[in-house]
Amino acid sequence: MSFVESEERRALRAAVAELGAKYGPSYYVEKAKAGEKTEELWAEAGRLGYLGVNVPEEYGGGGGGIGDLAAVCEELAAAGCPLLLMVVSPAICATIIARSGTAGQKKDWLPRFADGSVTMAFAITEPDAGSNSHRITTTARRDGDGWVLSGQKTFISGVDEADAVLFVARSHDQKGNLRPSLFIVPTDAPGFTWTPISMEIVSPEKQFICHLDDVRLPYDALVGDEDGGLLQLFAGLNPERIMAAAMGAGIGRLALGKAVAYANDRQVFKTPIGAHQGLAHPLAAAKIELELARLMAQKAAWLYDAGDDAGAGEAANMAKYATAEAAVHCVDQAIQTHGGNGLTTEYGVGMLAGVVRLMRIAPVSREMILNFVAQHSLGLPKSY
Q1: Can you tell me whether residue 361 is helix, strand or coil?
Q2: What does DSSP say about strands 181-186 and 207-218: parallel, antiparallel, or unpaired?
Q3: Residue 326: is it exposed, middle or buried by C-beta count within 10 angstroms (0-12/13-18/19+)?
Q4: Which of 28, 25, 19, 5 is nearest to 51 (CA)?
Q5: Cα–Cα dist 9/19, whole Å
Q6: Alpha helix locations (H) across 116-162?
C-alpha cells in the first residue's frame, strides 16, 4: 500500500471535483429544500462512468475497486453534493451482486449500475432489531417455484427513487443466529409499500419504513445462497462503511474549506481572524484529525480491494468512526469560525451540522464500532 494515490486515482478525483463544482452546494441544497432529487447530477455522473468505476469491465464498468468509488463519493461531497445513494446503490448492492449474484442477475443489473440508469436501495434495519441484526424477523418462505416475503424495515434510504430494494431476510425455517438471505424486490411489486419518515436533515434522499405484505417473487430474486451467511452480507457492509467514511471526509473538507476562506477574509481587529490562535489552532487540529481519518479510510479500501475481508472489516469500522468524529469537529469549528454567519443560509455551513451528526449514528453507530474494536481488535469480552 502506498500513501500516495496513483496517477489514475488522482486524475479521477480531479475530474469528479470538476463535475461537482459544476453543480455545487447551492444546487444540492435547493433540490433538498424543494423536495426534489439530484437527478441531473446522478445522470451526468453515470454517463461519465463515475458511478460504475467499481463495476467489472465485462459489464460496462471501470473495473476498479471500492477505493475508486470512494474517491468519487468523497470528491462530490467535498464539492457540496454528498450523494447518499452512492453509499447504497453502487457500493452495497452492485458489490453484492457482482460477488454473489447469478449470471442472469449480473447481466441484468451490473451494466445499469455502471451507467447510473438504475438505482437500488438496501434494507436491513428493522424497528425491533436496531443494531442487532440477529433479531431480524423479515422472512421469506418457499411457495412453489418462488418466494413470499413478509416483514417490515425502517430507515431505508431512497426507496422513492429506486427501481428495486435489496432486502435482508431469513428463510422461514431458519432459527438462531442469522444466516441472511438476500432478495431483490422491485419497488412496484404488489404488496410492497413504503411510508416516509419525517427527518430534520437537509437532504434530497428521504428515509422510509418499508412494508412487505406477502410479496411474491420468482425464485431468481434470491441473490447468492439461501444460507449464504454473514460473509455474503459483509460483501456489501464493508464497502458501506468505507463509503460512509469517504462521504464524511468530503463533508469535513468542505466545511474546513469554508472556514479557512472566511478566516482569511474576515477582519474584526487589525488582522484577519485566522491569524488568531484561538481560531487557527482548532482549525489546524481538525485538519490533522481529518487527514488521519482519510488515511484509515484509504487503508480500509486497499484491504478490501486486496481481498482481505477480515482486515477490511476492522479498518472500515475504524475509518467510519474516525471520519464521523473528524467531520463533526470540522463542521462545528467551521460554524464557530463564522460566528453568527455560521448559522445563516448564505454561508451554507450550519446545514452541514445535521448531516455529520447523523454519521455518528448511521450506517452503524459509534457505540457498535467501539464494541467491535473492543472485542475483535483488543480481545476484550463481548459486552452485548
Answers
A1: coil
A2: unpaired
A3: buried
A4: 19
A5: 15
A6: none
